[in-house]
């Protein structure tokens, strides 16, 4: 299956990838909006820590449905590239797109290489967990590339007060918390997505 690469994707598959990528993008937007609202009221300064986990929580059904609809190598890679390009053109840190590209490819390898596009839930959940880590692209530089990140914020006209507030909670414990929240969010999102997709297809088969 992998040997066929992107050539195995037909026009209909590419259309489906585009549709599900758009839905995934909407989930990302909702996750960022909801997290900003809630943390702004309850935990100011912690938005970046929670966003990846909330993305994983909301986008599970979209991911599971796409894996069911397009069980071919290349689909998840394309989705990862599209999500990475969104980060690139929406003003995030310049290297923020790289994790989604890499995680999309790795998730593709797990889904179509190890899982072989079947309904083996553990492999599909693992592929989703890997893919969700791509959403860490905009936040990892806070911990690992602080100087470059600060320079990019200054270039974008951000004030020193804004920058200080952004980095006030960037510590080793919050990095661990961010990773843990991402894992939990992705696992719960995968569970919800798998249940919804299974119910949808089982009902469809019963009606058929």
UniProtKB/TrEMBL annotation:
Keyword Membrane: yes
Taxonomic superkingdom: Bacteria
Keyword rRNA-binding: no
Transmembrane segments: 21-43, 49-66, 73-101, 121-145, 166-192
Keywords: Membrane, Transmembrane, Transmembrane helix
Residues annotated as signal peptide: none
NCBIfam families referenced in this protein's UniProt entry, alphabetically: Trep_Strep (TIGR02185)
Name by which UniProt lists this protein: Putative permease
Species, as recorded: Bifidobacterium actinocoloniiforme DSM 22766
């Amino acid at each position: 299956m992998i040997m066929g690469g992107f050539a195995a994707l037909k026009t209909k598959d590419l259309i489906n990838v585009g549709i599900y990528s758009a839905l995934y993008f909407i989930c990302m937007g909702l996750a960022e909006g909801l997290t900003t609202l809630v943390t702004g009221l309850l935990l100011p300064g912690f938005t970046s820590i929670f966003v990846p986990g909330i993305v994983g929580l909301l986008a599970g059904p979209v991911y599971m449905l796409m894996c069911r609809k397009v069980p071919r190598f290349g689909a998840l890679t394309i989705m990862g590239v599209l999500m990475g390009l969104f980060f690139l053109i929406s003003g995030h840190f310049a290297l923020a797109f790289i994790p989604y590209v890499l995680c999309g490819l790795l998730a593709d390898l797990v889904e179509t290489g190890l899982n072989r596009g079947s309904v083996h839930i553990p492999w599909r959940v693992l592929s989703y967990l890997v893919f969700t880590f791509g959403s860490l692209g905009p936040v990892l530089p806070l911990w690992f590339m602080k100087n470059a990140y600060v320079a990019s914020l200054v270039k974008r006209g951000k004030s020193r007060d804004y920058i200080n507030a952004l980095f006030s909670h960037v510590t080793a414990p919050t990095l661990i918390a961010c990773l843990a929240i991402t894992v939990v969010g992705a696992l719960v999102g995968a569970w919800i997505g798998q249940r919804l997709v299974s119910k949808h297809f089982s009902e469809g088969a019963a009606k058929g």
